[in-house]
């Protein structure tokens, strides 16, 4: 067994690998997000509006007015890139404080997926079958990986929600592009959900954008349900991304209990 992936809890020293992986995963969706922005209605409205202003008020030739097209495209790309860069700054601060944010209490945790493979790989990771196992299974199997290279190829975290009572947030679900479709994300998500169950949370929530369809489909397969949809700002309120908040219900909420039904049940049991 020369190609394995171990899912384990975060350890000191993982910061560099986590930071690089999360950065690559975030930036890998930049192109898809940018392309999606180009075909939004607001983009065509901006092009038409600016062209009309130049033609009517400044008397510019039509050929010159058409130059607003690359200008609008450039502005959208800059705005999207700045948003992603700001997100990375936030993430870098979070990764630097993983021990304090996720590993210092019993209600949060951060996991990594670490790949072990030969130093001289003759095949691309996409072409290789990896055995995904948890750290406990790895120790029980007593596998020797001392002569293999290792690197972090996946992450996920779970922490307490300060907005919703008895709820948890699943964040930083990332898998390296070359290691996807191998069951790594599924195993990471399973561990996060199981941790939420063991910690006594009533539900676990996760947010995905309209451009991360694979991630949403995985969550739906795992039993997550759509809770709400909302728009996240990219350039003010003019250009936004549709976000999906998904929830995994662990315990019934107070709204699920009906006092009337409980009263009727208690009444009927008396006869």
UniProtKB/TrEMBL annotation:
One of its GO terms (molecular function) is N-acetyltransferase activity. Keywords: Membrane, Transferase, Transmembrane, Transmembrane helix. Residues 96-245 form the N-acetyltransferase domain. Pfam families: Acetyltransf_1 (PF00583). InterPro entries: Acyl_CoA_acyltransferase (IPR016181), GNAT_dom (IPR000182), NAT_camello-type (IPR050769). The chain crosses the membrane at residues 45-78. It comes from the Eukaryota. This is N-acetyltransferase domain-containing protein.
């Amino acid at each position: 067994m020369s190609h394995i992936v171990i899912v384990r809890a975060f350890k000191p020293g993982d910061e560099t690998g986590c930071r690089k992986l999360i950065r690559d995963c975030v930036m890998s969706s930049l192109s898809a997000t940018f392309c999606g922005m180009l075909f939004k209605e607001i983009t065509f409205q901006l092009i038409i509006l600016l062209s009309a202003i130049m033609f009517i008020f400044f008397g510019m030739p039509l050929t010159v007015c058409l130059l607003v097209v690359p200008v609008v495209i450039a502005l959208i790309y800059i705005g999207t890139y700045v948003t992603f860069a700001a997100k990375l700054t936030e993430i870098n601060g979070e990764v630097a404080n993983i021990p304090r944010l996720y590993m210092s209490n019993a209600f949060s945790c951060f996991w990594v997926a670490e790949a072990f493979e030969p130093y001289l790989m003759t095949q691309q990771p996409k072409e290789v079958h990896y055995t995904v196992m948890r750290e406990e299974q790895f120790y029980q199997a007593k596998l020797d990986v001392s002569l293999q290279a290792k690197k972090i190829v996946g992450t996920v975290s779970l922490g307490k929600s300060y907005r919703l009572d008895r709820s948890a947030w699943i964040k930083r679900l990332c898998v390296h592009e070359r290691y996807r479709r191998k069951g790594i994300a599924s195993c990471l998500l399973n561990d996060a959900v199981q941790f939420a169950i063991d910690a006594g949370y009533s539900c676990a929530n996760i947010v995905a954008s309209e451009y991360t369809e694979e991630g949403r489909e995985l969550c739906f397969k795992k039993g997550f349900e759509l809770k709400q949809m909302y728009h996240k700002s990219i350039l003010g309120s003019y250009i936004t991304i549709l976000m999906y908040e998904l929830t995994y219900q662990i315990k019934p909420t107070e709204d699920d209990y009906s006092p009337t039904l409980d009263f009727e049940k208690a009444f009927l049991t008396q006869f």
